[in-house]
Amino acid sequence: MTTEGALSAARRMPRLAGLALFLASFFVVKPLWRLFGLHGPERLILLLIPAAAILLFARALRRGAWGEEVVRPALRRYVGRLAACLLACLGLMVAAGVAEDGVGLTGPALAGLRLLPALPVLGCVFVIGRYLVEEEDEYLRLRAAQASLIGTGLLLGAAILWGFLQQAGLAGPVRPGWAFPLWAAGMGLGQALLRARA
Amino acid sequence: MRNRLKVLRAERDWTQGDLAMRLGISRQSVNAIETGKYDPSLPLAFRIADLFARPIEAIFLREDAPPPAAPDGDPPA
Q: In chain B, is it the N or the C terminus that has fewer CB atoms within a 10 Å radius of its CB?
């Protein structure tokens, strides 16, 4: 491996580690709750795992972990805003958890608090839209738009397939909350595919 | 669409990064244009033409166009 190649690989490491940690946190947090027998507000401390992953991933991206010499301002703003939205979502989920388990909040107040994390998730969609508006590099803008179409196509495809499976009694209901993570994962996959083809 | 971007860049001893910086675009964009995977918009094509001080049609060629005559002693692409 050349020095440049080694440097590029080293720059990619925090990004890959952050991404792996973030994806893993979808699957490890709940089993860890069970493993340690955590039921009260103390279980929310494990949400520090995805929070750390978001920070690691965002920091790597803002420092040019895609291998670019200059990180474009629109990309820096996008990553910063996205990380803020995701952290706000986690924070509000923690707040709702503490209010329910710790403080014993019930009724409309708890329902309202539980709805609050939806706002930063909507914010994520807005942030992606802003990136498409603010990115001045037409090729990168096209690639981001194509990636979001790939994500949309994947989500629609999955929804159609699941709908028929459910109608046939072969699959159970799925929480609609998975729509955004699936769309985002499809977008990430789309970016990776487009990058590989470039 | 074909283009002579790589040749013009090589004549000036510029890397893709150098050209990207001069045009205010990403290195990925330069690479995609050079390899014919992306055709730039007209405004970007004009910026490229201005940078190399050549008319657009001396840089960007139709797919079926014959190789251009070398202006100013340039070797053909």
A: N
Q: Quick check: B41 and A138 CB within 8 A?
A: yes
**Residue A15: CA atoms inside 13 Å, Cβ hemisphere, count?**
15
Is the CB of A140 less than 8 angstroms away from the CB of B33? no
Residue A197 has pLDDT above 50, yes or no: yes
Nearest CA in chain B to A72: B26
Residues forming a β-bridge with B3: B60
Cα distance between residue A149 and residue A146, in whole Å: 5
What is the distance in angstroms between the Cα of A160 and the nearest Cα belonging to chain B?
32
A64: left (phi over 0), alpha (psi -120 to 50) or beta: left
Q: In chain B, what percentage of residues exceed pLDDT 70?
A: 86
pLDDT-derived band at A81 (thresholds 50, 70, 90) equals very high
pLDDT at A91: 85
Phi, then psi, of A103 in degrees rounded to 5: -90, -20
pLDDT over 90 (residue A14): no
- Give dist(CA A121, CA A129) in Å, integer: 13
Size of interface A-B (CB pairs under 8 A): 35
Encoded amino acid at A119, one letter: L
Residue ranges of chain B whose CB lies within 8 Å of a chain A CB: 17, 20-21, 24-29, 31-33, 37-38, 40-41, 44
Q: What is the ipTM score, two decimals?
A: 0.83
